[in-house]
């Protein structure tokens, strides 16, 4: 990084200018790489007049700033955070403004593929599970089923000189691993900034950047009480040299979707429109817990009562659609606790354009131990999972063999990285 000069000099940094008596300022030119969902004040609905909200960006920057911290005292942590990003009692010293340079392209998205498997967006088939609120929804006049395609804007950032490095690093992390709108952890609303991309010619440069931010911190995966870079895992694949980032993203998410529940991967091949039986243990775990099962689907998974897919984010909603006798209704696996109905996935799947033009698939698994009490809820039961039934209690769990998903006694995160063919960055 370039040296930060004193405020009485004409230039603070080659990238920053003095703004007023105390502040420095810089402008970032950003554009969308992948379609953006929602982003307005109403859930899943884009705001045509104000598609990029500074409040949302600041929330993202605040989140990524937190991932760089190593503060163990909650009071000191909050004081430090509020001083930079603001609170109800004090104003933020970071100021943001947005100027659109290319108005958003709004496109209504009809369903494509069979059984609502895909959303068709221009020449890209977006996997339906990525935008699950739209799945199986009829498109009638007045429905808000739109995505934002092309969009570019200038983000003006003003901060105090002493906060420059941590603000810049927050912006870089947001650009690499965050985004705009809903489902950004699954790659929606991914961003590209040429100035930032030039600092990352290879995925090895990204890996070094993440490691530097976690330097001198202690952490192991799935141990932190809040999402952190220290102890996280970063993997990547460098793919194409063209500009088809959205197409590469859809192929990436297709593979993730197959891992979760694809025919012949996450589940056995079915007959006709009927899905095959899952290779995952959760359906049989629910049959064991409820004591209900169809004659053709007696619980026989060797892992017993285990819910490994909870490691990829909560809640998870399951509905049995097989022959009569299986557990009726919908079942929701979620954190147990006051006002805690969801746990954002620590697994972040993105695509980015590197400085040289290559498109890369990125997978960052943040260090986050997640909720310690989980429950399974339905209209007929409220069941609290035992510790051995939690997602990461994998050491004695046997899986169906052969399987394309988790192997026996395999950590759910290791199994995901293996299936996605994500290798450690050299």
Automatic annotation (TrEMBL):
Keyword Phosphoprotein: no
Biological processes per GO annotation: defense response to virus
Ranges of residues in domain CRISPR type III-associated protein: 29-191
Stretches that traverse the bilayer: none
Superkingdom to which the source organism belongs: Bacteria
Keywords linked to the UniProt accession: Antiviral defense
Protein name: CRISPR type III-B/RAMP module RAMP protein Cmr1
Organism: Desulfobacter postgatei 2ac9
Organism lineage: Bacteria, Pseudomonadati, Thermodesulfobacteriota, Desulfobacteria, Desulfobacterales
């Amino acid at each position: 990084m370039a040296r930060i000069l004193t405020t009485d000099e004409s230039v603070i940094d080659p990238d920053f200018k003095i703004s007023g008596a105390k502040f420095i300022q810089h402008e970032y030119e950003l554009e969308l790489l992948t379609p953006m969902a929602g982003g307005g004040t109403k859930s899943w609905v884009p705001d045509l007049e104000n598609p990029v909200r500074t409040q949302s960006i600041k929330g993202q920057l605040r989140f990524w700033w937190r991932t760089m911290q190593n503060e163990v005292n909650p009071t000191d942590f909050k004081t430090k955070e509020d001083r930079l990003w603001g609170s109800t009692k004090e104003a933020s010293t970071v100021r943001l403004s947005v100027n659109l340079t290319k108005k958003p392209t709004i496109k209504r998205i009809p369903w494509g593929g069979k059984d609502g498997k895909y959303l068709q967006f221009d020449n890209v088939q977006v996997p339906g599970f990525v935008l699950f609120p739209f799945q199986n929804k009829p498109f009638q006049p007045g429905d808000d089923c739109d995505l934002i395609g092309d969009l570019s804007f200038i983000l003006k950032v003003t901060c105090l000189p002493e906060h420059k490095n941590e603000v810049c690093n927050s912006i870089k992390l947001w650009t690499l691993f965050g985004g705009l709108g809903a489902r950004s952890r699954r790659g929606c609303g991914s961003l590209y900034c040429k100035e930032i991309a030039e600092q990352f010619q290879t995925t090895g440069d990204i890996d070094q950047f993440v490691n530097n931010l976690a330097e001198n911190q202690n952490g192991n995966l799935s141990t932190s009480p809040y999402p952190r870079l220290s102890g996280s895992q970063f993997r990547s694949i460098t793919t194409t040299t063209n500009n088809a980032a959205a197409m590469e993203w859809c192929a990436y998410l297709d593979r993730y979707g197959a891992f979760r529940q694809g025919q012949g991967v996450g589940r056995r091949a079915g007959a006709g429109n009927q899905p095959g039986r899952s290779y995952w243990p959760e359906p049989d775990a629910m049959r064991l817990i409820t004591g209900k099962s169809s004659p053709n689907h007696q619980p026989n998974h060797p892992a017993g009562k285990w819910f490994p897919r909870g490691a990829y984010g909560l809640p998870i909603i399951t509905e049995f659609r097989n022959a009569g006798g299986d557990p009726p209704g919908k079942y929701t696996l979620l954190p147990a606790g006051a006002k805690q109905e969801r746990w954002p996935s620590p697994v972040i799947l993105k695509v980015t354009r590197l400085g040289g033009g290559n498109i890369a698939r990125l997978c960052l698994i943040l260090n986050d131990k997640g909720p310690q009490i989980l429950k399974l809820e339905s209209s007929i039961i409220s069941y609290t999972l035992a510790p051995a039934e939690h997602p990461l209690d994998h050491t004695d769990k046997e899986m169906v063999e052969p399987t394309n998903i988790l192997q026996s006694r395999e950590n759910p995160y290791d199994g995901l990285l293996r299936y996605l063919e994500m290798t450690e960055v050299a």
